[in-house]
Hints:
Layout: H1 7-10, H2 27-50, E1 61-67, E2 73-82, E3 85-91, H3 100-105, E4 110-119, E5 123-124, E6 134-135, E7 138-145, H4 149-159, E8 169-175, E9 186-192, H5 195-205, H6 209-215, H7 221-224, H8 230-236, H9 247-251
Antiparallel strand pairs: 1-4, 1-8, 2-3, 2-4, 4-7, 5-6, 8-9
Bound molecules: zinc ion (ZN).
The site of zinc ion (ZN) has 8 residues, from helix 3.
Amino acid sequence: MESLQNxxxxxxxxxxxxxxxxxxxxxxxxxxxxxxxxxxxxEQGESRRERLFDLTVPPGDHxxxxxxxxxxxxxxxxxYEVNGKWSGFAVCIRETDACPACSTLGREGSxxxxxxxxxxTPFTIKNGDNAGKEVRISRKMLxxxxxxxxxxxxxxxxxxxxxxxxxxxxxxxNRDSAKEARCGSDIEFLKLLSDDEIARFIAKYxxxxxxxxxxxxxxxxxxxxxxxTAAQLREQFGVNNTIPGTEEFEETDDVIDDEIPF
Length: 262
Ligand SMILES: [Zn+2]
């Protein structure tokens, strides 16, 4: 598997776009480029705020979680190594366009289904205004890869509640080793909760009414995982040459370095 040790800088659009071979050829285009990058940064900031932590079951342990979604959100996505950590992320666009992430990473984005769940593993906030505060319940993102997906399909067949789908399923996720998917591969059905029971479940762990409402919300997936354009992915992966056949290719002018006005 290709390691991307040098990707850290490239993840920031401003750092990943060297002057050479960009499409800038007028001063005004610098401002439009800056505007684009600012808009992209804002969008990325918003999507990061909307995103939840992916639930990771420690190897040799289990987590009990309550599913909030009726049906899962599905997408193709890339996860990749940055400085030794698998923290790189990009939504794969191969279904609609030539995906620069696929070609850079040398592998296709993997099909992933996502569901919002409640995790009652307590933790203490380390930084910020609420440092030292214990959190008894939190929303997490359950990311399910194709290897585990059939188990969730069976769960739905056996225990799903008609039109309510997965909503209210209380599951035990067991993970025997680090080689297993992050959510574990042994998925046990514990019970099915009604909406009233979900509300009582939340109330048992959280006293703040505002936070109770927040905890009951399914993630806004479209905001959390916006589908990037091919150009945005090229920028993220530091690929400056366009791929023939994509829309941007037609509009791109090759410029020589001397023409860049800075
Ligand atoms: Zn891709």
